[in-house]
Design goal:
This protein is mostly beta strands. 5% of the residues lie in helices and 55% in strands. Strands 1-4-3-2 form a four-stranded antiparallel beta sheet. The protein is elongated and about 40 Å long. The chain starts with a helix and ends with a strand.
C-alpha cells in the first residue's frame, strides 16, 4: 500500500483495499538484512498496480517478488 500511496498527495488518513496480490519466494534469506524496493508502474483513477522486490542488503540477491493491485482511498 505504501507504493500505491506514494506521490505528491498522501491522504491524511490513508486507507486502501488489496484487490489482488501474488508473492513468489525465490530463495531463503537466513539471518540477513533485507531491503524492500517498491514501485508503482501503473496508476489509474481508482487502482494502482505495484511491484516489490525484496533483496539482501549485502549482495542484492533477490529473495522474493510481490505484485499487487490496490485501490487506495
Amino acid at each position: 500500500m505504501a507504493a500505491a500511496w506514494a506521490g505528491p498527495y498522501v491522504p491524511e488518513k490513508p486507507r486502501g483495499v488489496t484487490v489482488s496480490m501474488s508473492i513468489e519466494f525465490i530463495e531463503a534469506a537466513l539471518e540477513e538484512d533485507l531491503d524492500i524496493i517498491g514501485v508503482r508502474p501503473r496508476q489509474g483513477r481508482r487502482s494502482s498496480t505495484c511491484s516489490v522486490d525484496i533483496v539482501t542488503t549485502n549482495d542484492g540477491r533477490r529473495v522474493a517478488e510481490v505484485t499487487g493491485t490496490y485501490q487506495a482511498g
